[in-house]
Amino acid sequence: MPVIDLTNPLTVFLCLAAIVAAIFLGHEIKRSVVPAIALVLCMGLLIMHTVQLFAFGDFYANYRVILSTSMLYDFGFVLVTYLAYLWIDDIEAKHRNKKSIDNSLDWFWSKI
């Protein structure tokens, strides 16, 4: 399995640019499926790094610091894409006049 090195600033910048582009596209077309795809990809990346770190520990022993740092970035990407998904899902529900079960971001905005 390849190691996607998120300790490299260029790689982090490219991942962040792809996430921001997905959020912007989802906001423009008012579809929550676009940030949901980004969320699934970020979770897949987190799972891949976790499996590489714990399941293949001896094989990737020299990559332990890189994989641990990459997992921290993955958690941050998952958090950002999850909040973006909730935000764009609310925008989509208002745009399509769909009844939302709950306003998922009320807990977030009321604390700020």
Structural class: mainly alpha
Strand content range: under 5%
Main sheet: strands, sense, barrel: none
**Number of helices, where a helix is a run of at least 4 consecutive DSSP H or I residues:** 4
Radius of gyration: 17 Å
Number of strands: 0
Task: Spell out the helices and strands N to C.
Answer: HHHH
Amount of helix: over 70%
The chain-level mean pLDDT equals: 86
Uncertain runs: none
Oligomeric state of the chains in view: single chain
Span from first to last CA?
42 Å
The outline comes out as elongated
General description of the model:
It is a single chain. α1 packs antiparallel against α2 and α2 (33-54) runs antiparallel to α3. The protein has helices at residues 9-29, 33-54, 64-95, 106-111. The N and C termini lie far apart (42 Å). The protein is built from four helices and no strands. 72% of the residues lie in helices and 0% in strands. The mean pLDDT is 86. The longest helix is centred in the last third of the chain and has 32 residues, at 64-95. It is elongated and about 55 Å long. With 112 residues, it is mostly helical.
